[in-house]
Amino acid sequence: MQTKNLIIAGAIVCIATQLHPAAAEPSPTVSYLMNEPASLFDVGLIRMNDSLRRFNRMHPIDLSEKPMMGLLRGETDLDIENIGFGTLYAKYSWDENRINIYALVFAIGEEDEANRHVCADLIEYLRFGLFGILPAFIENVGKPMDRNEPGNRQVLEVVGGWFDHQDYQSSNRPKYLEVEIMKLMRISVQVNDMLMEGNTCEAPLLSTAPPMYR
């Protein structure tokens, strides 16, 4: 009788184990990810790329705002219905200590030289459209800056919204953190035709110099 009871008890334990298996522990890879902290810089890049994706979806390219941007030369008559961003994203380069903003654009029916002008104009389009940067802001970099001046406040709030804590600031936060971050940024625009041939131009975000072509 005792042996029969032991067999029944063993069967019950076996069934219970199958119904309620022992809890699995995180694998070494999962443990590593759980213990690896995400930095405010990581979070900032995630927020920045979210903004780039929203901008790309919600703001069709419109180069008719040339007078508002100040630096645009307007040397090409671009049919804005024949242009659109293929990709738009930011990526940090550890070796260069640089945040690269990459934009791929398809322009239909443009000559090579015209595409060069489009490339330069699109850098200005992104400076103004994404950040609200006008030439006066760039010229004042390195000088005492009034954060409440409307032209400054707009730009600083955009970048601060990406790379700041929400609703508070640390006491050791650099005074012009936003400007220091923008100094790391470089815009690279590639203008291709449908055969993936075209021009690439790039320039620092905070620069009024003509872009470099490659």
Secondary-structure blueprint of this entry?
Blueprint: H1 2-19, H2 28-35, H3 40-58, H4 66-69, E1 83-93, E2 98-107, H5 112-131, H6 135-139, H7 150-163, H8 177-183, E3 185-192, E4 198-204, E5 212-213
Helix pairs in contact: 3-7, 7-8
Would you kindly provide a written description of the structure presented here, covering whatever features stand out?
The protein is of the alpha+beta class and 214 residues long. It has helices at 2-19, 28-35, 40-58, 66-69, 112-131, 135-139, 150-163, 177-183; strands at residues 83-93, 98-107, 185-192, 198-204, 212-213. It has one domain. It contains eight helices and five strands; from the N terminus they run H-H-H-H-E-E-H-H-H-H-E-E-E. Strands 1-2-3-4-5 form a five-stranded mixed sheet.
- How is the main sheet built? 5 strands, mixed
Please mark out the parts with pLDDT under 50 across 5 or more consecutive residues, or reply none.
Answer: 66-82
Major β-sheet strand ordering: 1-2-3-4-5
* Rg, alpha carbons: 27 Å
Secondary structural class:
alpha+beta
- What's the total helix number? 8
End-to-end C-alpha gap: 89 Å
Shape: globular
The helix/strand order is: HHHHEEHHHHEEE
DSSP helix fraction: 40-55%
- Oligomeric state of the chains present here: single chain
In total, the number of domains comes to: 1
Calculate the mean pLDDT score and round it. 80
Task: Provide a short characterization of the protein structure.
The chain is an alpha+beta fold and 214 residues long.
